[in-house]
Amino acid sequence: MRALICGSLAFDNIMVFEDEFANHILPEQIHKLNISFMVPTLSRVFGGVAGNIAYNLKMIGGTPVPMGVVGSDFDVYGQRLKSLGISLEAVKTKEGHFTPQAYITTDLKNNQITAFHPGAMNFSHENHVKDYADISIGIVGPDGRDGMIQHAQEFADSGIPFI
């Protein structure tokens, strides 16, 4: 059973600030915030809703087909998915754009500050459910706004059950 998983394929850049944000963000000066945090460690992991669901579905024996739009920097992520036997037939590359990226800084109290760049994800509406054969079920996950609406409608129109 092939599952078409619409959503983001993203890089998560994770950093740990070895203190508490509260020790550096002054409430009385929040209206003029200009702050920098030294983060001695940085890890980059493969993420995004379509990527995460596809990975986990594959690990339990499913046949995921992630559908998303990525940037020209996607190669290393794409190679990882291919090495796991996950199809990239529904992953489109938008040249001149970045793959979606989250930059997550966590402090010692597990508070987080996150910046997210959607990049190529904003073009998710350029991908269509009808372009992929033998799809039994679909998932519409967080993605570009227009793409999410369009993909839900396309699943409904084609009679493919989806969540």
TrEMBL record:
Alphabetized, the UniProt keywords read:
Kinase, Transferase
Query: Record's InterPro entries?
Result: Carboh/pur_kinase_PfkB_CS, PfkB_dom, Ribokinase-like
**UniProt keyword annotation of Nucleotide-binding present:** no
Protein name per its UniProtKB record:
Sugar kinase
Q: Record's Gene3D superfamilies?
A: 3.40.1190.20
Q: Which GO terms describe its molecular function?
A: kinase activity
* Annotated Carbohydrate kinase PfkB domain residues: 27-128
